Amino acid sequence: MKYKIVQEKKPTLKTFGLYKAVAVHSYTITPDEIISEMQANTTLKRSDILAVLEEYSETVLRHLKRGDRVRMRSLGLAKLEIESDKVPDASDFTACKHIRGVRLHLIPESEKGSQPLYEDIKYEKIKG
Asked: The pTM is what?
């Protein structure tokens, strides 16, 4: 995983002026590239992989939007969380006015206190 060192620029944070590592994402893999890679590593045809991935995506999205948590093998537990304003009285709360958005949370799979998602990551500092 590539990273660079940057200075915290938000004056309102306690860490203002300090330096931190941030991930550098230099490439975005496409669904077609993933399918090609999977086809090369299995006996499945491209059309079979595409059909399974499409159905899997649609099923996961349907459950997330319904408010379900979705456990994904080797990845972890995915769920949607609401971001909202806080109001002094519960009777003042209205969804259209106070809900700001939704975020996807992924809680990595854990096996005996270990999280395979984070194992074997190699860190590489980029220049610049």
From this structure: 0.76
User: Which is it for the CA torsion 76, 79, 85, 86, positive or negative?
Assistant: negative
Q: Give the Cα separation of 107 and 89 in Å (integer).
A: 31
Helix, strand, coil % in the chain, rounded to nearest 5: 30, 30, 40
In tens digits, what is the pLDDT along the chain, a chain of 128 residues?
999 999 999 999 999 999 999 999 999 999 999 999 999 999 999 999 999 999 999 999 999 999 999 999 889 999 999 999 999 999 999 999 999 999 999 999 988 888 888 889 999 999 87
Dihedral (Cα; 52, 53, 59, 63), 10-degree rounding: 150
Spatial contact of 109 and 74, defined as CB atoms under 8 Å apart:
yes
Residue 116 structure tokens:
């395979």
- 114 burial level (CB within 10 Å; 0-12, 13-18, 19+): exposed
Sheet holding 124-125, edge to edge: 19-23, 2-7, 124-125
